[in-house]
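Record passed on underneath.
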Amino acid sequence: MSDSRAQIRKSIRELRNNLSNEQQNLASQSLSMNFIQYLKTKKTAKNQHITIYLSNDGELDTSLLIKELWNLNHVIYLPVIHPFNGATLLFQRYEKNSPMKANRYGIFEPKLNCSQICPLPELDYLLMPLVAFDNQGNRLGMGGGFYDRTLARLHDENWQKPRLIGLAHECQKVDVLPIESWDVPLKTIITPNKNYCW
């Protein structure tokens, strides 16, 4: 693909932000159903440790999925920007009454509580945002590199946990992405229309 990563980010973000409220609401409902069904196919037990994210910038609305997962007795975590290095993520438990604050990007995250942090290998699923994805499961993020750096130590290993899953609108799919050596590809991407597995 001749388009640069910056060009792809710009065009896909525009597509995503142009979705109507009705399209976003329907997408949120379909995403929730698709992921819950995905868990059933994996015969996933209750009390799974699942990291998700709060939607921003036209991303698929995850609020309905979070409520459904709580109702099914799964334990939910949100990414928190690391307070010391500021370049990687921690994953902190998220409950209905969790105190929240806006991070430097204006995205809400739980106020840091070290007793509520889950080590990466103890997470069962890590649901990741993305700007674009391609036919090989490559993921293009917002450009901050937070997830890539956080997952870098797992990059060359055949790790089992957490299972990495991208969430996206169908309009975020492209044929081929220009990739870099640090990019972490995904084996599963779930959209409102389809579950992609590689």
